[in-house]
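Fold this sequence, please.
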Amino acid sequence: MKFRRTLLGLALAATALAFNTGAMAQATYKPEYKMSLVLGPPTPWGQAGKIWADLVNQRTNGRINIKLYPGVSLVQGDQTREFSALRQGVIDMAVGSTINWSPQVKELNLFSMPFLMPDYAAVDALTQGDVGKRLFEIIDRAGAVPLAWGENGFRELTNSKKPIKSPEDLKGMKIRVVGSPLFSDVFNALGANPTQMSWADAQPALSSGAVDGQENPLFLFTVLKMHNVGQKYVTTWGYVADPLIFVVNKDVWNSWTPADREIVRAAAIEAGKQEIEIARKGLVEADKPLLKEVAGLGVTVTNLSPTEREAFVKATRPVYEKWKATIGADLVNSAERAIAARKR
């Protein structure tokens, strides 16, 4: 009986070995995989890519070796082309912005709806709940494999002219915005003059005064030393947040063994959690040390009162209603319900 069990054990082991060997034989691995990023280290975004790449390399014993390409250099710096290039196989992997991918996946405009998300708990209610799952299904159908959420953060307003406390203060100001028509609609509704340009073009435009202001997560203010390009005023209004998404090209994903796919997925989830903590550092603490750091650079920081913020909400409401139909009323309604039910 013992002899039979031994033979059975050996047979099962041989079968497993044959299966695994067969899976590895069918899998194909490149010497290097190209990961696209808009920003590199030391930004939270760049750190997300590095943490993910390092974890994958370690856990696959170097089978999946990833090289970072910050500055969206694989698409000549055009952030809005990144998702298309990912689908086409020009890019193997990416940690990408919901804003930059929204031209190809219209539902991702959800996160750019003005004043939809009032706090970080609202962001989490969307990305970590049913809305996030639905968006991942949509991205999968659009041609990429989504694995995890990260975060670029709430986008705050800076300018070189004066404190911004009301929509009237923005009238006539030239504001650099990303290449999304929704952002142009928002700033047009506020009476500003929105100008779409890449960040590479924005920096000299801000420095020369050709553009008055811009909107971006606050961690970029200190990393890029925006006070040195004339940005002397900051308004924290939290009008939109920009989650990041860890994705892999479908053909690349299917070329790996199932075991390696799960390693890549688990590493993405872990990297995403670490990156979100990094992105929120200095802003979730009671004394918000990052705001103090910005003020210490000689910058005037304006924190809107609830009444002041509501004026911006009211002014941009027509834009919200217009884009609700474009994105899909059902998805937006689901997001609103998830936010209303969030735990704070």
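Confidence is low (pLDDT under 50) at residues 10-23. The first helix runs from residue 2 to 26.
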